[in-house]
Amino acid sequence: MSPAMLGFIGIIALLALLALRIPVALATGAVAIVGFALSGGLSGAGLTQGVATIPAILRELLQLDAMAMVALFVALGNIAFYAGISTRIYDAAQVWLRRVPGGMAMAAVLGCGGFAALSGSSVACASTMGRICVPEMLRHGYDPKLATSSVAVGGTLGSLIPPSILFILYGLLTGLPVAKLFIAGLLPGLLSLAGMIAVILWWVHEEPGIAPKPAPAKASRTEATLALWPPVTLLAIIIGGLYFGLLSPLAAAGFCVGLAVMIGVLDHRVSMDVLWIVLRDTAVQSASLLLIVATATLFLGFVEQTGIGNAVAEWARISGAPALTVIAIAAVICLILGMFVEPLGILVLVLPIILPLMQAYGMDPIWFGVILVKLLEIALITPPVGLNVFVIGSVTRDVAVDQIFAGVARFLLVDVLVLAVLILFPVLSTLLPSSMVP
């Protein structure tokens, strides 16, 4: 058996395990360890010698500052949630847009964007905002499809709008600067947000009865706007600090964690008991993510050792396929995988092949990172897996999952259109990173 064939078998084995719902870390770790052992056997070095490289790979990974950054941004999301900071954008948007047709659904999308940006987790956003937004919209007579799908798609914005956990993981696995990845996702994230708002406006225009006008809000617009200062301040520190070169991602995360704790304490929402819960949740979530990073790094190392990625890149180069065609094929593969595999699994599966292709065609890795994360965002709402959809279904048991998917289908069309725009106009992803202050 050739090394390239072994790499191909490893990718197929990982795909099969992920399709069987084996946890990402367990599946990638098992395939990587067995792969390294068999690779050593094929080379004549022996099975034991094959796995001897694993400790060195892990030692190098654990020395990266980005590993600590994962824990800090996870902690920021937890503190912002318990301090009541994450939902303030939704509260303000609901006051300002309440009398606009479909305004509550638009407020849900905006609120999800703000929540997901602070937490970095689309699933956590869907879970929390689903409990807050969906029951209120249903109580005011909103169509269940609109109420649930607006929150499901809004939650995906956390994949692009900084600070995104997916961008951190992509940066860790590729060695790219996380700060540039964060800033690169800003304009595509806002474009995705605009597309979601446009879908709601069109939907309500076509079917006015699905979004009745609710009663006026109790709070004034001035009060709602003034209450926005905590999330706006935190996002300004992260985005502004990174763009103008004032803070590293690690420093921005640490500073915002301290500020969020202070805001929570002053608002009497964060106590020692709450801090203990935050620390416990952060430890569990960070350990899970870091385990995925560690096993994914091993898997990438194994596949790189087999040379299958370089073989595919050489085949694509010899065939004369245009770069745009390669990107389109990769996008279709990711969209198909999104129907059966969770986003993190897709990231691990495609990187070993995509990275050599990207290098062979001279593609901008920052731009491609945005395209890949956008694809993973779409995977969160793609049937039949649609992780965000099932999260919404679990927290709002009155609405069937098939109804949520029916509503999400309208947003999927616009998401694919936004993806096409990002592929055709790379400047949308590269403009801000290229103008960052070093």
Question: What does this protein look like?
Answer:
This protein has 438 residues and is mainly alpha-helical. It has one domain (69-434). The chain has helices spanning 3-19, 24-43, 47-51, 54-62, 65-82, 88-97, 103-119, 122-139, 144-154, 165-174, 178-184, 186-206, 221-226, 229-243, 249-266, 272-306, 308-319, 323-337, 343-360, 365-379, 387-395, 401-424, 427-434. Helix 2 runs parallel beside helix 16 (272-306) and helix 14 (229-243) packs antiparallel against helix 15.
Short description:
With 438 residues, the protein is mainly α. Helix content is 77%, strand content 0%.
What is this structure's SSE topology?
Layout (H helix, E strand, L loop, with lengths): L2 H17 L4 H20 L3 H5 L2 H9 L2 H18 L5 H10 L5 H17 L2 H18 L4 H11 L10 H10 L3 H7 L1 H21 L14 H6 L2 H15 L5 H18 L5 H35 L1 H12 L3 H15 L5 H18 L4 H15 L7 H9 L5 H24 L2 H8 L4
Helix pairs in contact: 1-2, 1-16, 2-16, 4-16, 5-7, 5-10, 5-15, 5-16, 6-7, 7-8, 7-9, 7-12, 8-9, 8-21, 9-21, 9-22, 11-23, 12-22, 14-15, 16-19, 17-19, 18-19, 18-20, 19-20, 20-22, 21-22
